[in-house]
Specification:
Blueprint (H helix, E strand, L loop, with lengths): L2 H12 L15 H14 L4 H16 L4 H11 L24 H4 L17 H9 L12 H4 L7 H11 L19 H9 L8 H6 L28 H22 L6
Length: 264
């Protein structure tokens, strides 16, 4: 049963006084459509704040000292028998460093020791969201990775740490802060030098502007270099401060590893 048919069926039970046809080919009146919108918001939609709160709680618990993240990662990659281990990984379990963490394991519900069977299975914070809002349906599509990692996919340090452990020679990894690419040519000059390529003048390219800029997506139109667009995330000030404090800890570790600070 697809989502549209499921919503129509549940809406029919919810809106007892609505006059409409169950036949999807029959158009509904504007009044019924308005009621359907209210029903969907009430039963299916979550605020951005609710999603952030639920994920933040899971990540804070997983990544704290003594949390489940390092333990699950150790079990999954270093203690697993035979085929589950990767040849390179035993060398990465150097205890002189802070523990490695596979962030994907933070999203697994308690008691699940392997990967989720399918993307559509509810992750730990979505299950918590379901318990907190029992009158709502947690029914995300199979692309819910974008929803379930609103915060996690921005914790770059945990993903990069695996690469830093694997490539230990000095200057084997060069990280570029995206914001630096629009300021001047220094960032591209550094990339050119790191790759051992001959110097190139990027001034003309930079002065022309950028493609695929947030708020002006696509590659058909050039966006001016001085283009700015403020993005205000719709969350409470209390949650904004809590999230900022959480991110600052992980960003500081990342910047220390990189040897420089990104202008975030």
């Amino acid at each position: 049963e697809n989502l549209v048919a499921k919503v129509r069926k549940e809406f029919s039970a919810w809106c007892e006084n609505c006059t409409h046809s169950s036949d999807p080919k029959v158009a509904w009146t504007p009044e019924t459509k308005e009621q359907l919108d209210r029903f969907y918001v009430e039963k299916y939609l979550f605020s951005f704040e609710a999603l952030i709160k639920a994920e933040l709680a899971v990540l804070k618990s997983c990544l704290r000292k003594g949390g489940s993240g390092p333990a699950r990662t150790q079990q999954r990659y270093f203690d697993a028998p035979g085929e589950a281990r990767y040849d390179i990984l035993p060398a990465l379990s150097n205890t002189s460093f802070s523990p490695l963490v596979d962030l994907e394991l933070c999203y697994q519900p308690a008691g699940v020791t392997r990967e989720l069977a399918a993307p559509s299975r509810l992750t730990a914070h979505l299950r918590a969201l379901q318990k907190q809002h029992r009158g709502k349906h947690v029914d995300f599509p199979e692309t819910n990775h974008l929803v379930r990692s609103l915060i996690g996919r921005g914790l770059y340090g945990h993903a990069l740490e695996w690469w830093y452990r694997a490539f230990t020679a000095p200057n084997s990894i060069h990280v570029v802060c995206l914001e630096d690419l629009s300021r001047n040519t220094d960032a591209m000059d550094d990339v050119t030098a790191f790759l051992g390529l001959p110097p190139h003048d990027y001034t003309t390219v930079l002065s022309q502007g950028h493609y695929n800029v947030r708020g002006n997506e696509g590659y058909d139109t050039v966006t001016a270099t001085n283009y700015t667009r403020e993005l205000r995330i719709p969350v409470s000030e209390a949650l904004r401060k809590e999230l900022a404090a959480f991110l600052s800890i992980h960003n500081e570790k990342l910047f220390k590893r990189m040897g420089r600070v990104c202008p975030w």
